[in-house]
Amino acid sequence: MATAMAATAAERAVLEEEFRWLLHDEVHAVLRQLQDILKEASLRFTLPCSGAGTEGPAKQENFILGSCRPGEGRADSARGRAEPGGRESEDSPEQPATALCLPRGQAVEAATVGFFFFQIQDARNHVSQAIYLLANRDESYQFRTGAEVLKLMDAVMLQLTRARNRLTTPATLTLPEIAASGLTRMFAPALPSDLLVNVYINLNKLCLTVYQLHVLQPNSTKNFRPAGGAVLHSPGAMFEWGSQRLEVSHVHKVECVIPWLNDALVFFTVSLQLCQQLKDKISVFSSYWSYRPF
């Protein structure tokens, strides 16, 4: 019995020593790795811009959502081009230029359409918050309990999950919300009154949707049922705007891949896996003794 108790005490001592090493050494190694990965992710969200000390204007990213040259493509399709680079300021972090070739061949441009880049800005803010949380536990900080590590990992994972969801889960909007968003009014010349435009990020893609509308006459025999919120509305969707009842007659959607968004999503996945692995290691030690040393 004494031998068994001595063996148990020795095993416990070894486990406690390993746990101290985990808290003092391995945790900080993982935190450094996480910071390096998230700094790379943060760089992906830094849009190119001209700045002092540079040799010339930074190269603008130019995302083609189909061809936007006169005479190209079908007259009944929508095509677009987005240049999300631009000057940055506190009031307007991104000032992308967007051009559309609308159905029937009309071309319009918007000089400052930041609306659909709020998703990118929000994701970047969550990444910055995660980096801030990690940086607050530098090499000099000594974790005393596993609970501290679990709390930190939960907070970091929450920010990373929100950042990823901001890109993977576009907002569902009603047609009146799209009409009221202000995006339609930013184009010059003005969009025709029978068109609505929505632009959003979905995973690693920039998506542009043009809704063609027609007015439902007061004597229409159609049963008016306003459409609810959706990422993409289908033909036949109805809504009320002002004094008119409108129906979507055609939907034109084009999209293009933004490679650095795909990189960012990979960084989020890897970082979340590292956080979970560290949490699992901390939790394993609790199974070796009846009381929780953290």
From TrEMBL:
Stretches with biased composition (Basic and acidic residues): 71-90
Subcellular compartments: Cytoplasmic vesicle, Secretory vesicle, Synaptic vesicle
Designated gene of the protein: ROGDI
Name of the featured protein: Protein rogdi homolog
Principal location: cytoplasm
Lineage, opening ranks: Eukaryota, Metazoa, Chordata, Craniata, Vertebrata
InterPro entries hit by this protein: RAVE2/Rogdi
Family the UniProt entry places it in: Belongs to the rogdi family.
GO cellular component: RAVE complex; synaptic vesicle
Family matches, as PANTHER family: LEUCINE ZIPPER CONTAINING TRANSCRIPTION FACTOR LZF1, PROTEIN ROGDI HOMOLOG
Region (Disordered): 65-97
